[in-house]
Specification:
Alpha-Beta Plaits, four-stranded antiparallel sheet, 4 strands, globular, binds guanosine-5'-triphosphate, binds magnesium ion, magnesium, ATP-binding, transferase, nucleotide-binding, nucleoside diphosphate kinase activity
Length: 137
C-alpha cells in the first residue's frame, strides 16, 4: 500500500515542535490525506496501543499518550510504511540515525515524538481508529 498513519506525540506538541516535524514529513515527500489535532483519553490511548498491553511499559505509555494533545494524520507516498519508519528512526532516539525525526526531536524511548505504523494492515486499522470517511480523501 502507499499509505501510513502517524501521530505527533504529546512530548513534541508540548515543546512546540509540531510545525518543524510536519515540515520534515512533507519535505520527505509524504502527502497529508487527513489530519486532526486532538487529545486522547486514557481509555482511547489504551485501545490504540492494546497490542502492547502485556508489555511492562503499557501503563506508562497510556499515561504519556493521554497527557497532552497529539496530531494524527494519514500520509501517502510510495512505500509509505517503510519509508516513514526510516524517516522517524529507531524507537529509542539514542539509537536513531542522524537527521531522523526521533534523533532531532525525541528525548527518550518512552517520549519519542512520533508514531509510525509498522505494517500496511496496521496503517489501515490506525487510520480508521481516528478518521471517518468524511475526514479523509
Ligand atoms: P510507535 O511508532 O510509537 O509504534 O513506535 P515503535 O513501533 O518504534 O515502537 P513499539 O511499537 O515497539 O512501541 C510503541 C511505543 O511504546 C514506543 O514508540 C514508545 O513510545 C513506547 N515504548 C517502547 N518501548 C518502551 C520502553 O521500554 N519504555 C517506555 N516507557 N515506553 C516504551
Ligand atoms: Mg509500533
Amino acid at each position: 500500500s502507499n499509505r501510513t498513519f502517524t501521530m505527533i506525540k504529546p512530548d513534541a506538541t508540548r515543546k512546540g515542535d509540531t510545525g518543524a516535524i510536519l515540515n520534515h514529513i512533507v519535505k520527505a515527500g509524504f502527502t497529508v490525506k487527513a489530519m486532526k489535532w486532538t487529545k486522547l483519553t486514557a481509555e482511547q490511548a489504551g485501545l490504540f496501543y492494546e497490542i502492547h498491553k502485556e508489555r511492562p511499559f503499557y501503563g506508562e505509555l497510556v499515561e504519556f499518550m493521554s497527557s497532552g494533545p497529539i496530531v494524527a494524520a494519514i500520509l501517502e507516498k510510495e512505500n509509505a510504511v517503510a519509508d516513514f519508519r526510516k524517516l522517524i528512526g529507531a524507537t529509542n532516539p539514542a539509537q536513531a540515525e542522524e537527521g531522523t525525526i526521533r534523533k532531532l526531536y525525541a528525548a527518550s524511548v518512552g517520549e519519542n515524538a512520533v508514531h509510525g505504523s509498522d505494517s500496511d494492515e496496521n496503517a489501515a486499522i490506525e487510520g480508521d481508529f481516528f478518521f471517518s470517511k468524511l475526514e479523509r480523501f
